[in-house]
Amino acid sequence: MSTTQSERLRELLEPLVTSHGLDLEEIAVDSVGRKRVLRVVVDSDTGADLDRIADVSRALSAKLDETNAMGDDAYDLEVGTPGAERLLTEYRHFVRATDRLVKFQLTEGGELVARILEVDDEGIGVEVPGVKGRKATTRRLGFPEIAKARVQVEFNRKDSKKDMKEEEEA
Description:
- Helices cover 30% and strands 34% of the residues.
- The protein contains four helices and eight strands.
């Protein structure tokens, strides 16, 4: 997709997405066989439930039809959220990933897997899990130290706040 088309689509669609209380994270036009697919990724600080995604999808579809921004050829519109293992590229992404486990590629080389504890303008505070019976340690990462960061899926993590509440109720 040309930069010009991407910029036009972003300019056209972003105000609609924002009016639904969401952030426009990504726009991509892909060819799947003979079909084109317009993928729009949205998110918010509180997440995006199915009703909000359906509402914004209808609004985007109507706007695209009204303006003919995708041209006369058929295409499918897919609106969704970033997914479980999202790449963290903006300040707001790090804030939204607070308390999540993240794999960091460091600019000096090497990797670090740690849980985000706090985020401020200069960087993030993380907790590095202990290994082989050792206690977890805390560390500070400045944004310039981070080359790449991606949320990790955790299947066995207990949500300590939720678990404590459930234990109190039992």
